[in-house]
Design a protein that fits this description.
This protein is mainly β. Helix content is about 5%, strand content about 40%. The strands form 7 sheets. Strands 1-28-27-26 form a 4-stranded antiparallel beta sheet, with no helix packed on it. The chain has a 4-stranded antiparallel beta sheet with strand order 2-3-4-5, with no helix packed on it. A 4-stranded antiparallel beta sheet has the order 6-7-8-9, with no helix packed on it. The chain starts with 6 loop residues before the first helix and ends in a 7-residue tail after the last strand.
Length: about 425
């Protein structure tokens, strides 16, 4: 009778089992998995965003489910030479494919301060002229005025499903706030007033955003706080105070657990569950209007009136990089993959698209001219910026003649 040694077979079996577990490992959520994606915070490279990636970065958004995160394989269109698709009285040079002076040519001092893109690709545009909120097509053509609000629109945000449009403006008579929510009817390209939230605020209102799931709306401004609302009944959930600082911008983390807030010259991040502060930094030397949180949750970028944008690690508030843009930075906008971002600045000569791979400028585009002098007639640059839904175009709200610009990439087309 021959007795065989089972140890070599057992070793081979255990080795295959270990290799198989690496190839087919399926994460399980545990108590330290903050974003609930099954990757423990100890190994999750994107702890503020739900993700499934396992190649290069663990637990990051991976829209095509190939294992590689969007932020490592995403690309953008070629904005080297924006095409000229229109030839009419509203078009101007500099690679602008569509240009509309929303106030006509009678008042150079008006601005287009707020933009937002709906999930269906249409664009809400706020204009100082007549206090209109316009609706534009994805090509950048103004279609209709949705409504007027009685003061200059300062903030616009569509709910994640596009059914609601929130708008905030500068203060009314007696420093009364001006904050409203409208319900969209996309079939008729119209909006119906849903709720007036002005009574909960004072004076100018600057910052506004829905939570990623649409269940909450965050609003802040000169009342020096952020008020969060339950969008199912518009009741106030909580109020986060900022110690006498005006609130300028609000951006939620992709998983909705936190909000980033710029107030005066500072950046603070707070838990949405109870309003407590996660961290606070003060690196800018002038007011901070620009703010965005990357879609993979790995970066927060602020832009200030000190000519700089700064990049932070959201896990601890460490500043990763500081870049002197050469002009005030009014807005920051990531693309969907989080591979690039674009700035709105006060520069008349143009702005830049940056890569998050090395924080370098890869495209310079546009010109945003202004008049002479230092007053309203001399305003130049852009006040707000947004990518088109397909990311082949970039929209800017101008600071001169209420301009609404659309820049086309080489991949864009008219419809």
């Amino acid at each position: 009778m021959r007795i065989m040694n089972s140890k070599p077979r057992m070793s081979i079996f255990l080795t295959m089992l270990m290799v198989g577990s690496l190839l087919y490992w399926v994460p399980n959520a545990d108590a330290t998995d903050g974003d609930g994606d099954g990757f423990s915070d100890a190994i999750d490279d994107c702890p503020f965003a739900v993700g499934t990636s396992t190649i290069g970065l663990m637990g990051c958004p991976d829209s095509n489910q190939n294992g590689t995160p969007d932020s490592l394989e995403g690309t953008i269109s070629d904005f080297t030479d924006s095409t000229r698709e229109y030839d009419n009285g509203d078009e101007r040079s500099g690679g602008v494919s569509e240009y509309t002076a929303l106030g006509g040519w009678g008042d150079s001092g008006i601005m287009c301060r707020a933009l937002d893109v709906a999930p269906n690709g249409m664009v809400a545009v706020g204009s100082d002229s007549g206090d209109h909120v316009y609706l534009a097509s994805g090509s950048g053509k103004i279609l209709t005025s949705l409504f007027t609000i009685g003061s200059n629109p300062r903030a616009l945000d569509f709910s994640p499903n596009g059914s609601l449009l929130a708008v905030a403006g500068y203060g009314m008579d007696g420093n009364a706030a001006n904050v409203h929510v409208y319900e969209m009817d996309w079939a008729t390209q119209s909006a119906t007033h849903l709720v007036n939230l002005s009574a909960h605020h004072d004076d100018d209102t600057f910052g506004m955003t829905f939570s990623p799931d649409g269940g909450e709306l965050y609003i802040g401004g000169k009342d020096e706080n952020v008020t969060s609302y339950d969008t199912s009944n518009w009741s106030v959930i909580q109020i986060i105070e900022f110690g006498g600082d005006d609130v300028y911008s609000i951006a939620p983390s992709p998983d909705g657990r936190f909000i980033a807030v710029t107030h005066a010259q500072e950046l603070s991040v707070h838990w949405t569950s109870n309003g407590s502060q996660y961290f606070n930094v003060h690196n800018h030397t002038d007011v901070v209007l620009g703010l965005d949180w990357s879609p993979d949750g790995r970066w927060i970028i602020t832009g200030g009136n000190d000519n700089r944008f700064r990049v932070y690690d959201p896990t601890n508030g460490t500043m990763i990089v500081e870049v002197n843009q050469g002009s005030d930075v009014y807005d920051v906008e990531f693309n969907k993959a989080g591979t690039h971002f674009v700035l709105a600045t006060t520069s008349s000569s143009g702005t830049s698209i940056y890569s998050t791979a090395d924080w370098s400028s890869i495209y310079d585009l546009g010109d945003f001219p202004g008049g002479s002098g230092n007053g309203a007639s001399g305003r130049r640059g852009a006040r707000d910026v947004a990518w088109s839904d397909d990311e082949t175009k970039i929209y800017f709200g101008g600071r001169y003649y209420g301009a609404f610009y659309t820049f086309y990439s080489a991949d864009a087309f008219i419809w």
